[in-house]
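REQUEST
  id: r-88c1
  op: predict_structure
  target: DUF177 domain-containing protein
  payload:
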Amino acid sequence: MSEKRKGPARPVLTSPWVIDTRELGRRPGSSRPVHRNAQADYAIGLEGVIAVPAGADVELDVLLESVVEGVLVSGVAAAPLAGECSRCLDPITDEVEVDITELFAYPLSATVETTDEDEVSRLIDDLIDLEPVVRDAVVLALPHVPLCSPDCAGLCTDCGGKWAELGPNHRHETIDPRWAALQERFQQDDG
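RESPONSE
  id: r-88c1
  status: 200
  body:
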């Protein structure tokens, strides 16, 4: 039995991520700025490594423009980041700011008719949901290897101390296991 493919879920207007475009109208050239804060419902990124924490405010500063095929959304989204350094495991706090440019196609437009459902965002009941667009842009902007500073030396592999705190003369004497028996023999002769 084949399962019928459902369209995208209707956005909930009470969500700060959802914008009603009815005021904009469908006349190409109309535009409207939108400034608001939306709360991240979950961590955006890789939690514990680097992410926008769940519950953090994401500042949206976008321009809605009516075009022939739909509504073009362009602007920026900014949010705090939290994670840990990949080298020394110190906590990291920073901010991320991403540029957003996304076309939300009108129902029955040529764009909707000629693209797959997952290729282009769509207006649903004159509503646009910015959360997936911002999430994708933020995840792509996050560093693959977050560092507390570009010159972070990391941790000593022998004792686990931070190289920045250990100093340049820090070292551990290691003996090749093949010579360990000989070293024990010399230590016995000295004693």
